[in-house]
Amino acid sequence: MTNLANSQEQTVISLPADFSGFTVDGFKDEFEGLVGTDTNFIILDFSKTEFIDSSGIGAIVFLYKRIEKKNHQLSLLNVTGQPFKLMNLLRVDKTIPFIDSI
After folding, report:
1. Positive or negative: CA dihedral 70, 28, 11, 15
2. Which positions fall inside the STAS domain (predicted)?
């Protein structure tokens, strides 16, 4: 996980090319740490992400539910290709905003 930008207002996280099973396990602690911060806006950058599975989507939804309880916001940046198709099919985009730029 790479913090591209980090301030009290927003944190931008770059996700890997493959955000599935084994890879997701490495992000659980990172996502848990985000929940404990005072950051108002968390942005997950999908620019490099070519593949996501149910584990990846589950981790994102889990993060969303946790930060929503703190009245913070989560957005997904540059979601394209297979991740876009799957999240659109599962209607993730109806709950978590997709954005094209910051």
Report:
1. negative
2. 1-102
In a domain, 10, yes or no: no
Q: Is the model more confident about 1 or about 5?
A: 5
Domain count within the chain: 1
pTM (2 d.p.): 0.87
Tell me what the pLDDT averaged over the chain comes to. Answer: 89
Residue pLDDT, tens place only, 38-74: 888 999 999 999 999 999 999 999 999 999 998 899 9
CATH number for the domain that contains residue 90: 3.30.750.24
Q: Which two tokens stand for residue 67?
A: 């930060």
Q: Are strands 10-14 and 18-19 parallel, antiparallel or unpaired?
A: unpaired
**Cα dihedral 61, 74, 6, 15 in deg (nearest 10):** 40
Is 9 inside any structural domain? no
